[in-house]
Description:
Layout: H1 4-9, H2 16-44, H3 49-70, H4 78-96, H5 98-102, H6 109-120, H7 146-161, H8 163-170, H9 178-185, H10 198-221, H11 228-239, H12 257-270, H13 274-281, H14 285-290, H15 292-314, H16 320-335, H17 350-359, H18 375-393, E1 402-403, E2 406-407, H19 410-436, H20 441-452, H21 473-487, H22 491-494, H23 499-502
Antiparallel strand pairs: 1-2
Amino acid sequence: xxxxxxxxxxxxxxxxxxxxxxxxxxxxxxxxxxxxxxxxxxxxxxxxxxxxxxxxxxxxxxxxxxxxxxxxxxxxxxxxxxxxxxxxxxxxxxxxxxxxxxxxxxxxxxxxxxxxxxxxxxxxxxxxxxxxxxxxxxxxxxxxxxxxxxxxxxxxxxxxxxxxxxxxxxxxxxxxxxxxxxxxxxxxxxxxxxxxxxxxxxxxxxxxxxxxxxxxxxxxxxxxxxxxxxxxxxxxxxxxxxxxxxxxxxxxxxxxxxxxxxxxxxxxxxxxxxxxxxxxxxxxxxxxxxxxxxxxxxxxxxxxxxxxxxxxxxxxxxxxxxxxxxxxxxxxxxxxxxxxxxxxxxxxxxxxxxxxxxxxxxxxxxxxxxxxxxxxxxxxxxxxxxxxxxxxxxxxxxxxxxxxxxxxxxxxxxxxxxxxxxxxxxxxxxxxxxxxxxxxxxxxxxxxxxxxxxxxxxxxxxxxxxxxxxxxxxxxxxxxxxxxxxxxxxxxxxxxxxxxxxxx
Length: 504
């Protein structure tokens, strides 16, 4: 049977006008988000509100124009979904960077895009408080107007659950083809649908997200060292596992055991699949506590805390309580890829520092706001390794890979293995490129894994007390790409460079 004439009459594989239309809707939505920092500016009377209003106006005009011109009237397909997701994150970063330039906060557009992409991807790396490669002194964090501090944290919060997931929750007009967008953006090898309708699932996830944010905000606000503004910003950054703080020295600035405990707790909760939180809120404690990934994530966290707390006590001379306090905070901050800091881990004894470096390659649970490789992938890799060892001993045996009572489909196993290999290749390439600019081994490794894993702080010249400002502009764009690639789970971006993606 000849297929040529039929395919020629059919719809092309990628409808770029549909992509532009949906992209316009996201840009339009960003305009509303940009008005929130303007209100903060009016409260504090710092006269930078115009930069956000102008940026919002441009977003409304550009986004609204694209939507009205190219509004989709048909179901979007998987290829268009991948393109929308990839273009959304870079476009929103380009538009979201405008207030920094209009207000004159940052003279470099590259630095503005870096800071915005770091916010939206919940990375938490910053170019503030450092000198750029061209000799420009960027302002430090505490010198920023309140509106810009809010914009950084708000970008975290919106990007944490995902711009597209948010839009699916509040914009019925994007209910068309929503599953394609949801699958393309949602982190982890599987997507946990709580309801048959993706729009309802998105709403439920956001209800949980908002509830946890509100609870943390109240718990932080009652502490005398935090006003409502600091509490809100840190709640946004915690639940999004972002790491932007309102203080130059991050959480260490508050020097409070209470604040450390609250933020550690909510960082840990943010690293759990939000579908599990929803089930727990419904009273389904069995599903929550019996979830294999949650238990594995908890186990790795506890092991990490015990080892590093021991190292801080035995090698670094901290008291036992200090070791537990600082060790647990840093471990949870890195595993969940939040990146908050209460201690400089580069000053630790090498044993504890190396264990923490290994945790840079873990990540939170699938379906959480955390970045990284994800715990479920490590579980599958470990179980598959065990199966291969048994297979050598019993070559004719049929040995499926199981997690609990669930048999893992061979397709998922191959996908996870491919992801891991690709992750390491991209990480290595990123480190290689950074080293090309003259940085030492640990600085190059730290910058690459920090961006790709959406962690925030790195190592060497980009440690927890340092800024990414000195990087050459070309290197910053490399990290911008790595942040986006890491946030969208590699394949969403890499697939766009495959020739088969563009073939009809």
